[in-house]
Design a protein that fits this description.
4 copies of one chain form a homotetramer. The first copy, chain A, is of the alpha+beta class. Helix content of chain A is 33%, strand content 22%.
């Protein structure tokens, strides 16, 4: 069973990650992980810290002669900047910032100082999640399962969803400073970010992750915690700043009559199933149905804004203004990369559960055999 | 650790449920569970089956002289109507219905008949989840943690969220045939449901669950799967027909600048924390912050509509129309009751994790002691 | 992932069981489960209760037209005798019996009465485990994996282990009143049991479970909780009265030099591996190695003996004698059946993890393909 | 919930460990962890590798100003000797060694080379388990729960169990080169080890771990996987070379009549419970009963012996002799340290489950309150 733990504080010496249950014989390319780490760090709207310290992963175990061994994969990402307290302002001290875990975490863990909380509640830990997700993509690629993620909204500027994009527009995303497929939308987004930065304000938005070539049959309606959509909801909602999740066109659907939202099925000549719509977002009854899995996440604007927010001092019990820590103006493009990683993990987990396989060879063999004998559809 | 499994097919003889890790010495009132089962079954827009067969739970273990013993609680809900195939039409056979698990489940489990899939993928199993949630509420009540759930949208008719309701309006909900606080909205909803039923159509909507008196400190940012919002997202997304989840005002927030959405903190005279807004929905950094936990779920309209949908026959591989099974027009009020149950489970699970306690006495003692020494806020 | 929960008190109305993650399309024979329930109940040395109330299972879900559907299997075993307090003597009350969970459970769950504890801590719940294990055997049989269990010691009378038995002796076990392969040993055992019963005393012993045709590669050394021997140790140690576990000849081995205990490997003509010894009990490095898996469990004599044991009254805090509840003289043969069930569960769990498979067809196909391409050994 | 993962290959650059669910505010003393690492490495009978490379842990996260923060604790132990292939002989190659995971692991993970298997199946990974266990002891110490571990047998030389030792003999253990309390036994053991080393042979034995001041009520009979003895059995059986586990006097008990093995209870003047025997090893019905928890593990002799063992070459499918890798003669003293760590983990896990507590303060408060109101015994 694929599972992972991560450790690491925002200004500690390193992040650690351990991925267990990863099949053997998967070619491991450290550079492809580093590319994903860079995708998380890039994005117009990030603060300078991101640009100075480029994350690079070091794999310390579970790989032999360039392929995975089936043993736990041990990962280290060093914190180059800010080691031991770096830019964490001393005055953060005992005044919890609204919108952060500061207050809740201090009460929970018994601190009157915000630092031991914010060090872990920080989104810094998501760098390791991206590395884990990157390994999961290396497992999915040989099965032709591919992930795509992009930004479909920043502030009140929207950009079209994946299914309305041309191949060319899809390619555009990786070159866009805001992971946006649409030039006009991108321009507006950049302008809003500039404006927000000038004002010391922040912007949220919406990201979309699409998984292509997902076989039907991942997840199960058998129990509440085996449903694929439920697991994806946990994985994506767990990303800092994400406050809402949508599968397919779930929100819009809720306002329409049932007659307008069904994804009818058509038989093709070679007896596979085609649909003209994908309102279900690739999941029916908690099980992947063979269509692309579509997951959208809504990202709140970061709470670290120049406007001084009301709070109080936990030590002296007096009203106080929350400290302003210079921060990112907009992290929506980064959340797209993180959401892709978390969805990749859940899809990979469901794949190893369904197809077993201690080695890539075995997983591929079982996967192909399932598709051949009916999983693809119908011809068996 | 609180956990449960359920079993039971839609037209089988009974649903079973087992709840493990439930503290001892909690007074168990079978009738309060039955009331929750009735709330799930009621609601304008349900089909006749609901009215005929009133669900009643039977507790077969884990209770002694009216109180829980700490042993697994065994539950049975008999399927009074429809036993063994009852109203399941024979023609359902081999044509998967769009919007159901039919196709995905048949491919996954290797059937060319839809019945073995639809028997479990059916929302029938949620009756047992409601019973489980009801037991969880019996654990939360002695800690003063209360849940409220209502309908805030059916089709395109909206009704105000909890925080804008008067006490009187809140009380109204339990008497409303659509679990709606607002008379005008209710009227519109009933009309839409009548119209939809006449047309053989269906309606979705949106429900809101609010948890009151949640102590700060449930859940943790320590790992992705310990975050309270993430766990709630899984639990609620796992309800059949739910396709999107929102914590607090997560969707609206994503479009606003950060300066407009923060929940500032104010110190009261007796040194507790007050906020004037709750955009965060009671959860910051994955941890409850002492404000009400607010969860919204978007419900798609049921796919069983009179309009005949295109599909195909899995046996003969020929195009076919999906069978129309007479069904509910609108299940949104029922989903409110189910969402309440699932949220109750996750809150109860987080409570037993944080406060331990093998008996209610112990949990209460630990809970009170936490609040006294700082968990309430700040006075320690 | 295969998992189960059980519920049910010793004198309650029924035991419930739910098995989740069980593949579809496995032919389910209720009678074969009942036969295993009978094996658990039989055995010279049981009290009369066992003979009066023959356990029979009722499957209420997860089966359709005689085959499993992939949905949770719901099981009910009714408590025919003793319902609601039956032969539980009133005087059991507040005096904990040494050797039972009475004291520890009362303190843990906050009772000053032993009943709510002993109702669940009783070995009665193992009936449901046997039913679960029986279902697991139905999954293993189509893969040719077979289990054998017998008694190799009662009191100080020993009987040879599996590997030294002839085929005929192995067959003998099912007909023996003490599940013993050896006529002479059986005679001695029966005499000791008679003597112990006359004295109001009890006898423990040792059982052995052997799993045949286990493919190499179940379990993993990757993490402590994925090792097959560790998981089996948990599963078997969890049986009431079992106080020690041995894999292969683990105890004897610990006293011998390394040069005398290794299982050397020999290549056969058709390139499979043969060993002349199996000291490792089929597991090397936490992974099955293709040899029979051999698990031994040591069973303590039941603590319910006529000799009155010293204890105290929890209510009045005064010394007291523990009540004598008429009970079984020897449960070792029953433990053999239960150990078989628990080992079957762990082997089945490891099989579904390695080979995946939502349907028996898929599991079989993946299993066969693994054996063909190397898993059998070496010829790929 | 306390959980951990480890990563790291025998000759890789480092071992990683992540411990999640560890309460905050526990003083963390890196040196006490290093002392436990040294205990694992010492012991007469280890090879030279152990002496050259002294393990030292580096904590990279989860600690702030010397106390734990409640965030995951990240640990690194560098592999000073042998980095990247060091003393792993090239000829190990494709001939699996009997008694190792070599064959089973190669078949499972699809290798025809033993190295990727033996790198992880090696006992090297237990260094990180000892570090994890050491952190668990830091959590248990403030609750007065203490662990003791020693060697009670090497080869066929036995030494008395804990309960028969004087305080002075107990102290002796830490100074003994074989962790043995008895001078005469120690002498014999050293002689056997010398002899075995000379012969290129190896020796196994038996270790005992005792946990003192365990409160009654840890673990539960409610479900098979919540029993404390079952969990300890998994944890200890998962240690490489351990092939049998005994709780209390489980093996001897199995041969005695019930009248001779019960631990009768006596009320003391201040109304606590005393027993004169502890055959149950501190666990009745799967729950700790307040007496010392006693766990014994049987250790097989290492399979790396000079005598050349028969095996075959997986590449060319020809009979071959297994390579002889110079190795430890006797690891029994090291297993004592590892068993102590694994038992510490399981006890700490059960403590955090029962008493909750996100901070040491909270856990201690809840713990004390339980003892006061009945958990100690009886005076409430």
């Amino acid at each position: 069973m694929l599972r992972f733990l991560t450790a690491g504080d925002s200004h500690g010496e390193a992040l650690l990650g351990i991925l267990e249950g990863y099949p053997s014989r998967i070619p491991i390319d450290e550079e492809s992980i580093n590319r994903d780490l860079a995708r998380r760090q890039s994005g117009y709207g990030r603060s300078d810290r991101m640009r100075i310290a480029i994350d690079r992963v070091r794999i310390v175990s579970g790989v032999w002669k360039g392929i995975s061994t089936g043993s736990p994969i041990g990962l280290i990402i060093e914190n180059k900047a800010g080691r031991k307290g770096g830019d964490l302002p001393a005055q953060l001290g005992s005044v919890p910032r609204p919108g952060h875990a500061d207050l809740a975490g201090s009460l929970k863990y018994g601190f009157k100082d915000v630092s031991p909380v914010s060090e872990r509640a920080s989104a810094r830990e998501t760098a390791m999640r991206v590395a884990i997700g990157s390994l999961c993509k290396l497992l999915l690629e040989p099965l032709s399962i591919k992930l795509f993620s992009h930004v479909i909204q920043i502030g009140n500027v929207a950009s079209p969803p994946y299914e309305r994009l041309s191949a060319k527009q899809r390619l555009r995303v990786e070159r866009s400073p805001v992971r946006c497929s649409n030039i006009a939308a991108e321009k507006s987004m950049l302008r809003r970010i500039d404006l927000a930065r000038k004002r010391g304000d922040s912007l949220g938005g919406e990201v979309e992750t699409v998984v292509l070539n997902v076989p039907p049959g991942l997840g199960s309606y058998a129990h509440y915690d085996t449903r694929l959509d439920a697991r994806i909801a946990l994985a994506v909602m767990s990303i800092p700043s994400v406050k809402a999740i949508e599968i397919g066109s779930g929100i819009e659907e809720s306002r329409l009559p049932g007659s307008q939202v069904q994804d009818e099925m058509f038989l093709t000549r070679n007896n596979s199933v085609r649909r003209r719509t994908n309102n279900a977002g690739g999941i029916e009854g908690g099980v992947s149905n063979g269509e692309p899995v579509v997951v959208r996440a809504f990202v709140k604007p970061l709470p670290t804004i120049r406007k001084s927010l009301r709070s109080f001092d936990m030590r002296v019990l007096r009203s106080s203004r929350a400290p302003f820590v210079r921060s990112d103006t907009c992290v929506v493009p980064a959340v797209a990369a993180i959401a892709e990683a978390m969805v990749a993990f859940e899809i990979a987990r469901a794949v190893t559960e369904k197809f077993g396989g201690d080695s890539l060879n075995e997983t591929k063999r079982n996967f192909a055999s399932y598709l051949r004998t009916g999983g693809r559809g119908l011809s068996s």
